[in-house]
Amino acid sequence: QVQLVQSGGGLVQAGGSLRLSCAASGRTFSSYAMGWFRQAPEKEREFVAAITWSGGNTYYADSVKGRFTISRDNTKNTAYLQMNSLKPEDTAVYYCAAGDYRGANRYSLQEFNTYNYWGQGTQVTVSS
Fold first, then answer.
1. Which of 10, 39, 49, 124 has the greatest CB tally within 10 Å of its CB?
2. Whole-number pLDDT of residue 37
3. How far apart are CA 16 and CA 76, in angstroms?
């Protein structure tokens, strides 16, 4: 069992930066792929970024590529999402997720079903 606790987020002006953290319980964090998803009001949850269990591969949605960076620190059992050059359209509730998946297929890592555990969500609001 893995529990994910998110922190970070908040209100920022367009062009600003935020960093989200996702702390995992348990000793098997390093064996899980990690992903970030978001859900804007009246929209479906969408993929944002993912990192493989080894940290060797990262994938991003086209809408955030070049602005967001996903990373992980296995010594701290924590995954991060650094968000730069934020835009009003980035406003959403952000969720981290952990999946017992040892592959590196980008399409699998973008799928909700790959992930077994989810964080509680954190609001990110970008004002124009």
1. 49
2. 98
3. 26
